[in-house]
Q: What sequence folds into this?
């Protein structure tokens, strides 16, 4: 089995890397900052960075040219994702929520008008999206959501509350799940709506939720008679659960994660090398386990981070056939790599603070 990228992709990798080293503003240091918790200056810097990407068609290289992409191959897109992840390329929410979630969801479920309207504003960096899914009473059990949207002529009127809205205070667009039929079984009365220009939408209020580290990453979003045009409905009314799950599928995958974890693991290894012998011995084997599992995660994910426009059945089937053990289901891989990710985060946290005040 050939696990290396081709010559063309490796050449592109060097081009992307040298662009990032020159333009990510940190001289090659990974960013580490969370979306939304950056200072105003850092956020403005990320916007400028995305503008430079946009000029090259690099915000969503694998998207079709008509939507501002380059029509790049899946492997070229993976090179971009890996390099962006490893070098901590700054983002505003345009690439994460825009390219990574709502864009591909629109390509699958949106109508032509919606695609023409929204996709180019993602690839130009103009639209910065946030996600309105969770509510105070609807987290893991998302289908219990209560934010209500009622039809009024050509509009929906929304009332209710969202919570944990990452970067909501930096965004100008929101995609959200709302209840449109309270009588239906809970998964069947939900619709998927886009809200434009959230900073200037009457009745919509974004309030900060400051976390334990005193960072402003999350927000609560309140809706009081917020009017949204019915043309912003994605897919059919009351069938939004399935649109929302498509989006979560994109959210859960992501080859960039293994690249940024690789960086974290390298930094952790460097810290351990410089730290005490005891600490080194305590964590060496576990760290090696994580390096192996991260590499496995990378290879297992490769065939799945496909842009939907490239999900041509034959290509996808042949990729799966070549790269995955027979009978492996993508969902299991995602779960496995998420699990490995959680474990790594836990270990990284423990290792980082064990010498100081945490007990390992
Ligand atoms: C970094 C981060 C960013 C996020 N960004 C966003 C965002 O932008 N937009 C958004 O909408 N949401 C966002 N979320 C919210 C996230 O999706 C919620 O944390 C999630 O919906 C879980 O909801 P909850 O916190 O209310 O936990 P709960 O659902 O209350 O769960 C709490 C605990 O109970 C357990 N539990 C729940 N139900 C069961 C059960 N039936 N059986 C056994 N155990 C159970 C869970 O496993 C968990 O340990 C974000 C979360 C994080 C951590």
A:
């Amino acid at each position: 089995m050939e696990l290396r990228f081709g010559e063309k992709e490796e050449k592109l990798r060097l081009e992307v890397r040298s662009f990032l080293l020159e333009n990510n503003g940190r001289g090659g240091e990974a960013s580490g900052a969370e979306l939304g918790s950056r200072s105003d200056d850092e956020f403005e810097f990320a916007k400028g960075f995305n503008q430079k990407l946009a000029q090259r068609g690099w915000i969503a290289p694998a998207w079709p040219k008509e939507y501002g992409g380059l029509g790049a191959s899946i492997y070229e897109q993976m090179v971009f994702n890996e390099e962006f992840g490893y070098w901590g390329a700054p983002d505003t929410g345009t690439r994460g929520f825009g390219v990574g979630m709502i864009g591909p969801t629109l390509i699958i479920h949106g109508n032509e008008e919606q695609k023409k309207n929204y996709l180019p504003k993602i690839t130009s960096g103009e639209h910065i999206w946030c996600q309105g899914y969770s509510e105070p009473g609807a987290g893991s059990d998302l289908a219990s959501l209560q934010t209500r949207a009622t039809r009024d002529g050509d509009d929906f009127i929304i009332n209710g509350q969202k919570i944990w809205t990452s970067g909501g205070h930096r965004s100008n667009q929101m995609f959200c799940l709302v209840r449109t039929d309270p009588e239906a079984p809970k998964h069947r009365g939900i619709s998927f709506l886009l809200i434009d220009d959230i900073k200037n939408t009457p009745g919509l209020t974004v309030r900060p939720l400051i976390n334990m580290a005193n960072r402003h990453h999350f927000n609560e979003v309140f809706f009081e008679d917020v009017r949204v045009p019915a043309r912003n409905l994605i897919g059919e009314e009351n069938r939004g659960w399935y649109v929302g799950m498509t989006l979560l599928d994109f959210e859960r995958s992501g080859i960039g994660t293994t690249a940024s974890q690789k960086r974290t693991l390298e930094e952790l290894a460097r810290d351990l090398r410089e730290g005490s012998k005891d600490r080194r011995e305590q964590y060496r084997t576990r760290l090696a386990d994580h390096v192996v599992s991260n590499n496995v995660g990378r290879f297992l994910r490769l065939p799945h981070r496909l842009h939907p426009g490239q999900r041509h059945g034959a290509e996808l089937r042949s990729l799966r056939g070549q790269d995955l053990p027979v009978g492996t289901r993508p969902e299991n891989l995602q779960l496995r790599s998420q699990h490995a990710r959680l474990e790594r985060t836990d270990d990284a946290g423990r290792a980082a603070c064990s010498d100081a005040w945490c007990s390992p």
Q: What stands out?
A: The pocket of flavin-adenine dinucleotide is lined by residues 130-134, 139-140, 164-166 (CB under 6 Å).
